[in-house]
Amino acid sequence: MKRMALTFASVLSLVLPVSALAADIPVAPGQGSLAGAIRTADAGDRLILQAGTYGGGVTLGKTLSIIGQNGSEVIGPDAGSVITVDAPDVTIAGLTIRGSGSDHQNIDSGVQLTKKAKGAQITNNRFEGNLYGVDVHGAKNALVENNTIIGRRDRLMNRRGNGIYIWNAPGTKVVGNSVRYGRDGIFVNSSRKNVFSDNRFEDLRFAVHYMYADNTEVSGNISIGNHLGFAIMFSTRVKVIGNTSIRDRDHGIMLNYANSSVIKDNIVREGGEKCLFMYNANKNKLLNNTFEKCQIGIHFTAGSDRNTIAGNAFVGSKTQVKYVGTKDHVWTGNYWSDHSAYDVNGDGIADQAFRPNDAMDHILWTQPSAKLLLGSPAIQLIRWAQKEFPALLPGGVVDDAPLMNPPPQPAAPLVQQASLR
Fold first, then answer.
1. Per-residue pLDDT tens for 256-307?
2. How far, in Å, CA of 185 to CA of 224, rounded?
3. Distance between CA atoms of 273 and 151, rounded to whole angstroms?
4. pTM of the predicted model, to two decimals?
């Protein structure tokens, strides 16, 4: 009979899905209790951690869920990763996780997902003081959602780890997280088909840092007071849509060898240096963005060409456009806050084309010492002549249909929240 019962159980396990056989297992706090529960649990079980402290440095080699209740803390031994996931379809939720090691080579993290961790879900956790928050290292279709990640401040910024590190993890989504301190908020390298949306980044080097990540989306994120907001580098077909950069020190958005991408409905405001920097970025579409109150609205150089730039608002920057070159770039239908023009027929388009730069701008960019002559009558005469006789203007940017009024800003409810801080 016993042999028949075992046979029946084996057949039942083949017929029913794992979730139907899964059990909810309560786990009490203690130094070795979590490791013991992982060891004895069956695939598909849910480990329900009661409030209290648990020892980290554990590895999940089977499909499990670890669900924390209020006050559940997993603390690592200050070496390695606190939780390593080495099995598919694992869920980790509702925990406070801290105590990783400090080894960059091994990417010591709060949670580390190996390439076997396909479909992992890391949600609603709080990460404190780990070298890296979440390392998605080759795990396809993972989800990192609604976590709070507070990085380290005990070393120089470039020697800290990233909040979320994505490497070769196609299909991974990073949604609704808050990342502060550390090095970069999200650093993605050699990946594709990822989505990074509705996250908030503060006090970092880069909010989002791309390297070789094609066919991806960055949407609805907020970057506040970082060195650089959204850095899209060596990537193609990226959608950068509806993001906000407030008071980022260097650039709000940077496109470096970024091609065939869509930059749309973003707001960059009060940047310390450049709202948008484009370096050898080609065949991109920049549509309906607002670049406001930076030292330079947009700086593009190093052969950036064949870009469509339309429907944007350039508002109140000290220099709206910086471009050194002799080739004309025609932009169409942007708003320029410093363009004094008439609209006789009332169609909303200025009667005169607009060139944001003149010959003196080009001289000052290439010969900064010439700034000493800015107040001289000769300089004023040159600028007057260029205004009255546009044929004297050098090659550069010209908007052939400038708007009389700024287009409506994109609907971004989180922008107001960002501005309040």
1. 999 999 999 999 999 999 999 999 999 999 999 999 999 999 998 867 889 9
2. 11
3. 26
4. 0.86
Query: In angstroms, rounded to a whole number, what is the distance separating the alpha carbons of residues 206 and 250?
Result: 10
**Distance from C-alpha of 201 to C-alpha of 145, rounded to nearest angstrom:** 14
Quote the distance between the C-alpha of residue 9 and its chain's center. 49
Could you tell me if 17 and 40 are in contact, meaning their C-beta atoms sit under 8 angstroms apart? no
Q: How far apart are CA 344 and CA 106, in angstroms?
A: 66
Whether residue 113 contacts residue 85, with contact meaning beta carbons closer than 8 Å, is answered with: yes
pLDDT of residue 376: 57
| Residue 302, CA distances (Å) to 172, 280, 396 in order | 33, 5, 14
Lookup result for tokens 């580098």: 233
Specify the amino acid at residue 372: L
The average pLDDT across 88-102 equals 98
If you compute the radius of gyration of the chain from its CA atoms, what whole number of angstroms results? Answer: 27
**Rounded distance between C-alpha atoms, residue 80 and residue 103, angstroms:** 7
235 and 210 Cβ atoms separated by less than 8 Å: yes
**Whose CA is closest to 142, among 167, 112, 121, 164?**
121
Cβ of 220: how many Cβ atoms within 10 Å?
19
Q: Which long-range contacts (CB under 8 A, 24 or more apart) does 243-247 make?
A: 243/218, 243/219, 243/267, 244/268, 244/269, 244/412, 244/414, 244/415, 244/418, 245/207, 245/269, 245/271, 245/275, 246/222, 246/270, 246/418, 246/419, 247/271, 247/272
Instruction: Give 16-52 pLDDT, tens digit per residue.
Output: 454 556 899 999 999 899 999 999 999 999 999 999 9
Beta bridge partners of 111: 83, 134
Q: Which residues of 283-299 are buried (b: 16+ CB within 10 A; e: fewer)?
A: ebebbbbbbbbbebbbb
pLDDT exceeds 50 at position 238: yes
Q: Please measure the distance between the N-terminal and C-terminal CA atoms of the chain and give it in whole angstroms.
A: 70
Q: What is the largest CA-CA distance in the chain?
A: 108
- Dihedral of the alpha carbons of 187, 191, 193, 195, in degrees to the nearest 10: -10
In the chain, % of residues over pLDDT 70? 82
What is the C-alpha to C-alpha distance for residues 163 and 174, in angstroms, rounded to an integer?
Answer: 11
Q: Is the pLDDT of residue 142 over 90?
A: yes
d(CA 165, CA 145) in angstroms, rounded, equals 14
Contact between 189 and 213 (Cβ < 8 Å): yes
374 vs 234, residue with greater confidence: 234
